[in-house]
Amino acid sequence: MLAFCLLSAVWLVSSPTRAQNETEPIVLEGKCLVVCDSNPTSDPTGTALGISVRSGSAKVAFSAVRNTNHEPSEMSNRTMVIYFDRVLVNVGRNFDEERSNFIAPRKGIYSFNFHVVKVYNRQTIQVSLMHNGWPVISAFAGDQDVTREAASNGVLIQMEKGDRAYLKLERGNLMGGWKYSTFSGFLVFPM
To answer: 185: how many CB neighbours lie within 10 A of its CB?
Structure first.
């Protein structure tokens, strides 16, 4: 199968009518994914044609929700990790449902977004998206006269295989009774 994919890639590279243009790579999808570099001399691996073959199963996406309020428990008082009790999508099975962590299956650019709701007025919430234990972005909601207020944020992160991303409650309590608090992410492209 690999030989067929490579032969197909060589045929497409040599066929100018199939190329997108001189600067864009050609991408084939199916059982395999072939990316042809239009400038093979810049390929650090030194492959003659600048071709890389990857598995066609590069789809990675997750979306999780809270069905209950998140009052910090003894365990979450130590970690302050926001746990999600319902996973709606877990393509690639890279969202660890027990720990509410996303684990990157490969090096690439990943997109993450979250939406949380504060419960009580006269309270501020702060939630951070953590990457390997370090905060990347945060969201705040702190209007003192509003009972329920949303805080949202999103970001693109370059991750290595095995890196982790999760949400940490820095301050306040979350409302999740009607799926108000969500955490989602997906692989934009592998590297």
So the answer is: 26
Residue 8 DSSP class = H
Radius of gyration for the alpha carbons in the chain, expressed in angstroms and rounded:
21
**What is the rounded CA–CA span in Å between residue 115 and residue 94?**
20
Classify each residue of 127-136 as buried b or exposed e, where b means 16 or more C-beta atoms within 10 Å of its C-beta: bbbbbeeeee
CB proximity list for 166: less than 8 A, separation 6 or greater: 81, 82, 99, 100, 101, 102, 129, 130
What are the backbone angles phi and psi of residue 159, rounded to the nearest 5°? Answer: -125, 150
Cα distances (angstroms) measured from residue 169 to each of 4, 66, 87, 114, 185: 50, 13, 19, 12, 18
| CB-based contact 62:184 (threshold 8 Å) | yes
- pLDDT tens column, 54-76: 444 579 999 999 887 766 555 55
Which residues, in sequence order, are bridge partners of residue 51? 36
Looking at residue 163, its pLDDT comes to 98
Q: How far apart are CA 88 and CA 100, in angstroms?
A: 13
Element (H, E) at 11: helix 2-14
